[in-house]
Specification:
Layout (H helix, E strand, L loop, with lengths): L1 H44 L5 H20 L5 H13 L3 H8 L4 H7 L5 H13 L4 H9 L2 H6 L26 E2 L13 H10 L1 H8 L3 E11 L4 E10 L4 E11 L2 H17 L9 E8 L2 H5 L9 E7 L5 H18 L1
Parallel strand pairs: 1-6, 4-5, 5-6
Antiparallel strand pairs: 2-3, 3-4
Helix pairs in contact: 1-3, 5-7
């Protein structure tokens, strides 16, 4: 019986692997076909005397003809997406570099991104991090790329092309959006409740943190000869090759909070950090922060310490864009 079970399992794995390869091949072929359709539509539209009217009529007639021959999947909206797909990725080399391995559902979302650098970022991260369509949609809506970029002190820094595993700023966001914790929007919040909410939604919190993070411990105790200290959350980033200590603050950031985190990071490096680990990173996750305190504290000079705000709800894109721009102006002011 055991031999039969093993035999069946082996056959099942062979079939599942074959189906997976077939599905990947079909997806790649359809993405290529949609790009070719978009290219041909653009070429035909450019011959029309009145481009707007001719283009709309052309795709409506094409939709009816293709639907009659091939069935559903060729609506006017989908043909319009094919056209936009070609316009977003007009070079075949770019198409193969950025879109390789992505589904049409992923690409339809990514095509709506205007900034070419952000578009490249979402293509690369979707593929390398295996984002689902839902995860990709949330990251676009929450402006994940722009929130990473807001921590950069070099406005023209190209984080999508960064390959250095030690580039800390490519991993720190400001603000972090924690709407999935379902915290009260306005009511006062205890730090213990925030911590428990993160633990309850740890997988989604790790996705929001970004690539390379793994959970290590909550309330980790660090002991010296005279005292015990407890760190709220400890993670390890296998790309940065370092520990990341997070201190949760449900009120406004204070200089005492910054001093405490500075001490935590120094102690962690001394007592917990391994020989092959890079210096520990400390992130103070706070409800709000006073820029004066940030400017005149060790946060300005210490490349391992960060203060990032968290937001309890998912803001509108306009609200989030305004917040990110405000943070960038403050950083530029400090510089």
């Amino acid at each position: 019986m055991t031999e039969l079970t093993t035999f069946y399992t082996d056959i099942r794995q062979i079939l599942e692997l074959a189906r997976g390869k077939a599905q990947t091949a079909v997806n790649s072929a359809m993405v290529e076909a949609y790009w070719q359709i978009g290219k041909r539509i653009v070429q035909e539209q450019q011959q029309g005397e009145s481009k707007a009217k001719y283009g709309k009529r052309l795709m409506e007639e094409l939709s009816r003809a293709l639907t009659a021959d091939f069935g559903k999947g060729f609506s006017y909206a989908n043909l319009y997406n094919c056209r936009q797909f070609y316009l977003k990725f007009p070079e075949r080399e770019i198409l193969y570099t950025l879109c390789r391995g992505l589904s049409w559902s992923h690409l339809r979302l990514i095509m709506r991104v205007e900034d070419p650098k952000a578009l490249a970022y979402y293509c690369n991260e979707s593929r390398s991090e295996n984002w689902t369509v839902r995860q990709l949609e949330r990251n676009i809506k929450s402006r994940s790329y722009q929130r990473l970029l807001s921590t950069q002190n070099q406005p023209d820094k190209k984080i999508v092309q960064s390959t250095s595993p030690n580039n800390t700023l490519d991993f720190i966001k400001d603000p972090y959006v924690l709407e999935f914790l379902q915290l009260p929007e306005q009511d006062s919040l205890k730090e213990s409740k925030l911590e428990q909410a993160i633990i309850d939604e740890l997988q989604r919190f790790l996705l929001e943190m970004g690539k390379g993070f793994s959970f290590v411990a909550r309330q980790m105790r660090i002991s010296t000869e005279t005292s015990h200290f407890y760190l709220d959350l400890v993670f390890y980033n296998y790309l940065l090759k370092c520990f990341v200590v997070i201190d949760l603050k449900t009120g406004k950031l204070t200089h005492q909070d910054i001093g405490q985190m500075d001490m935590y990071v120094r102690m962690f490096d001394d007592l917990k950090r391994g020989e092959d680990d890079n210096p520990t990173i400390g992130i103070i996750l706070c409800d709000s922060k006073d820029e004066t305190i940030v400017k005149y504290s060790v946060l300005k000079e210490n490349e391992q310490l960060f203060a990032s705000k968290y937001q309890r709800i998912l803001p509108t894109e306009a609200e989030l864009a305004a917040e990110i721009e405000r943070e960038k102006r403050l950083i530029e002011g400090r510089e």
